[in-house]
Amino acid sequence: MSQQFRVWMQQKQDQCERALADFIPQASVVPGHLHEAMRYAALDGGKRVRPLLVYAAGQLFDAPQEALDRAAAAVEMIHAYSLVHDDMPCMDDDALRRGKPTVHVKYDEATALLVGDALQAQAFLVLSEGNASAETRLGLVRLLAHASGSVGMCGGQAIDLASVGLALTREQLEQMHRLKTGALLRASVLLGASCGKTLNPEETVALNTYAAAIGLAFQVVDDVLDATADSATLGKTAGKDAADNKPTYVSLLGLPASQELAQQLCREAHGALDSFGEKAQLLRDLADLIVQRQA
Amino acid sequence: MSQQFRVWMQQKQDQCERALADFIPQASVVPGHLHEAMRYAALDGGKRVRPLLVYAAGQLFDAPQEALDRAAAAVEMIHAYSLVHDDMPCMDDDALRRGKPTVHVKYDEATALLVGDALQAQAFLVLSEGNASAETRLGLVRLLAHASGSVGMCGGQAIDLASVGLALTREQLEQMHRLKTGALLRASVLLGASCGKTLNPEETVALNTYAAAIGLAFQVVDDVLDATADSATLGKTAGKDAADNKPTYVSLLGLPASQELAQQLCREAHGALDSFGEKAQLLRDLADLIVQRQA
Questions:
Q1: Any residues with CB less than 8 A from the CB of B46 and at least 6 apart, and which?
Q2: What residue intervals traverse the membrane (chains A, B) (predicted)?
Q3: Which of A77, A151, B130, B241 is within CB 3.0–4.6 Å of A123 for a Cys-Cys bond?
């Protein structure tokens, strides 16, 4: 990882943090308890991979930072709400997230449910406001709604739930992840790029290919880390997948083949960006980051 | 209730049902289990009060039916998702809704959580598409996101949760309901009207006054019915509020004063519509319906 990329990343993580802090109502706004819990769930945590993809893809087309801040905050609110709901006892029942107690542990289950619901609404509110043209903002809303709903993230979670204990084929596993985590990662890339311009078909195909590859790579690496890292490094409970008898790339392909698959997907992601030249360097660096991350 | 209004109401309830059936993916679309549960939650049930408000307010400004169908379906999806989440064990823990087993009883808790999440995303997707201008659609998204989020419906639910067992003042009770049920009812009126034209300040004030009055009346009547009707008539568990030690208008003002308050709010709602003349008759009839309903 280059020093320049490291600096850029820190800068954008800070920028996203400020955007989230601005776009989620303060705890002084009624109902204060809910807003405090929403801020607990979304602020000060995570690698902000999705916002980084938004900013990097936005840079490709010189998108205005104001629009990118909204897109980055919105996609991170969707991601944060999904974690809050995922961690609840009726789903993964996890007590630790990003090294902190999960929302239902810190507050209670009913609050966690409402925090997730309200973060989702807030994401669409943030996208619907701002300085971009009505067409642009509407396009962002549509992208995010599609990627986070029943044929995107929520759909992937439903398939995941239904798959526990089943022997999935590699295609079935891939389809689940394409929805569960892939859809939102892909949306992040398209959201960022769409803040800059209306994409032509070639650009859409190239960015979709890139996004599909890193989306899958992200999940393969997640499975590898769940099998190899410890909870302290991950900031969440390690070894959960095996304990929960969940199908993973590691259980399906084994560890070495999973690691090789991640590398191959990274090369695919790089290849998809060729036509963009130098301006896509941040997206290349992010693909590397996703595959090389340790947590 | 006039025969003409009764016919209109049945027509629009059917129209809303068809719109919901169209706008929620079929159970044949992957993931079928989730889509089936979403349809179970949203179709074939309820009085469709919010959609009726959308259609009635739309008629005021001759809004196109295509846009109204989207707005009606979207607001009903938000309402349906809130019921699914509300009924979960960590919230109201209710087994019966609209005379049918609640979603977490019929399926399971994890599915109920995802059904609610996915219905919310679908509501924003439906609003973001269609034939209305980008400005109009964006305005609808903003209205609905604001009304359903942390300073609207979700916020009201958070205040409600925090109020169990507390002695609320009438103002506090009113504020809670203004958010919990009032915000979405108000949004329904504004969504419908906004499908027809961009509202001027006088129209906005008049419709807001109408919507605030019927929103509050709706809740007062709800409290009255919870105290007086039986579960079979309500299609949900009666007497829950008292059993849960929840503050209600009946517990605060007593039954006769609550009934008189509902009547007074109905007169306020009528008064707010004076400037619209004959074209507002459907909204007047709906105010009467809300106050006179028996379930």
A1: B76, B79, B80, B98
A2: none
A3: A77
Report the gap between the CA of B115 and the closest CA in chain A (Å): 8
Residue A125 is nearest to which of B25, B110, B149, comparing CB atoms?
A: B149
- How many domains, chain A? 1
The answer to whether B122 contacts A34, with C-beta atoms less than 8 Å apart, is no
**Nearest chain B residue (CA) to A38:** B150
Residue A148 clears pLDDT 90, i.e. is over it: yes
* Alpha carbons A12 and B221: distance in angstroms, whole number: 51
Are B162 and A138 within 8 A, CB to CB?
Answer: no
Question: Taking CA atoms, what residue in A is nearest to B27?
Answer: A150
CA distance B121 to B136: 19
The ipTM (two decimal places) reads 0.95
pLDDT digits (tens, 9 = 90+) for B33-61: 999 999 999 998 889 999 999 999 999 99
Size of interface A-B (CB pairs under 8 A): 160
Query: How far from B128 is each of A23, A54, A66, B17, CA to CA, in Å?
Result: 21, 21, 21, 20
Radius of gyration for chain A, computed over Cα atoms and rounded to the nearest angstrom: 18
**Residue B124: pLDDT band by 50, 70, 90 thresholds?**
very high
Burial group, residue A17, by CB count within 10 angstroms (0-12, 13-18, 19+): buried
Each residue's pLDDT tens digit, B247-269:
889 989 999 999 999 999 999 99
Contact: B85, A149; criterion CB under 8 Å: no
Domain that includes residue A7, residue range:
3-292
Please report the beta strands in B135-273, taking only residues with DSSP state E, as ranges in sequence order. none
CATH number at residue A167: 1.10.600.10
Contact (CB<8Å) A114/B157: yes
The answer to whether the beta carbons of residues A253 and A276 sit under 8 Å apart is no
